[in-house]
Design brief:
By secondary structure, this protein is of the alpha/beta class. It has two domains: 49 residues; 144 residues, Rossmann fold (3-Layer(aba) Sandwich). It is built from eight helices and ten strands. Strands 8-7-9-10 form a four-stranded parallel sheet, with helices on one face. A two-stranded antiparallel sheet has the order 1-2. Helix 4 packs across helix 5.
Length: 269
């Protein structure tokens, strides 16, 4: 009985020791640290790279818009963004087209109605409480990226709301922020309009979806370079599927031939 008790105690002690050692090692391997603590309990802390003061001269980062501009100059006509839906290509965009859309959207945010998005006073310490806000409500897509980067270019702060959020939560966020501008997926518009009476501040809805569809083959119009690339991507994905399916069919045929050979051998014997 004493032996069993001693063995159990040893294992319990070992588990606690391993947990403690793992916790200490985990701290040393941490890659981030708190840069600024949140003022409110509901908000998240601001994190940065660990030992950022020491490593700031070693680790240098380029702004994403600068990277995009470089890719636009070097690979303007190359496909840089591919959007998949249910395993199939739903949309794509070259670096050049993407950059042009970002600039175009940024210009609209700055100039629409002669004013664009106007800065409003909010109960915040940063920037003296003055912010330009735009809501972004939808699924992950290329147009989502265009919107977010266009806002970066115009100094507009995006309030991101994913399509998986419940409509009650979305309405609550829109009420609290008193948003006037909202980018939204087309299939989410109907659900939001059911609560439009609760959102008197909401004035502008911008549809995120690409409304212009690619032309199908058979139309007597020349296809653009982008459309040819799109067809090429379609063919590549379809060819991969056919190769896999063809491989399975060949295996079935070969299996059938082997069965016939075996039967003939049995008959001869």
């Amino acid at each position: 009985m004493n032996i069993i008790f001693t063995v159990c105690t040893f294992f319990i002690y070992l588990i606690f020791v391993i947990g403690y050692v793992t916790q200490i090692n985990g701290r040393s391997k941490c890659f981030s640290e708190i840069y600024e603590k949140a003022c409110n309990e509901e908000e998240s802390n601001v994190y940065c790279i660990k030992d950022h003061k020491k490593k700031s001269s070693v680790y240098t980062f380029k702004h994403i818009l600068k990277l995009l501009l470089e890719k636009k100059k070097s690979d303007n006509d190359k496909i840089g963004f591919v959007e998949n839906s249910c395993g199939e290509i739903n949309n794509f965009m070259t670096y050049g087209t993407f950059y042009e859309k970002v600039c175009s959207f940024s210009h609209s945010l700055d100039t629409y109605g002669g004013k664009g998005i106007e800065a409003r006073k909010y109960d915040e310490d940063k920037n003296n409480g003055m912010f330009k806000l735009l809501g972004l409500y939808g699924s992950n897509s290329i147009n989502w990226l265009v919107t977010d980067m266009g806002c970066m270019m115009s100094g507009v702060t995006t309030i991101v709301m994913h399509s998986k959020f419940s409509i009650d939560l979305i309405v609550d966020i829109l009420k609290r922020t008193q948003l006037e501008w909202l980018c939204i997926d087309l299939d989410l518009v109907e659900g939001l309009l059911c609560h439009i009476k609760e959102l008197p501040h909401l004035k502008k809805l911008i549809i995120l979806d690409t409304l212009v569809k690619y032309k199908k083959k058979g139309i007597n119009e020349e296809e653009s370079d982008d459309e040819k690339k799109y067809e090429g991507l379609r063919k590549d994905s379809n060819n991969k599927k056919k190769v896999k399916q063809g491989g399975k069919k060949e295996e079935v045929k070969q299996g059938g031939k082997k069965e016939e050979v075996k039967k003939e051998l049995k008959k001869n014997n």
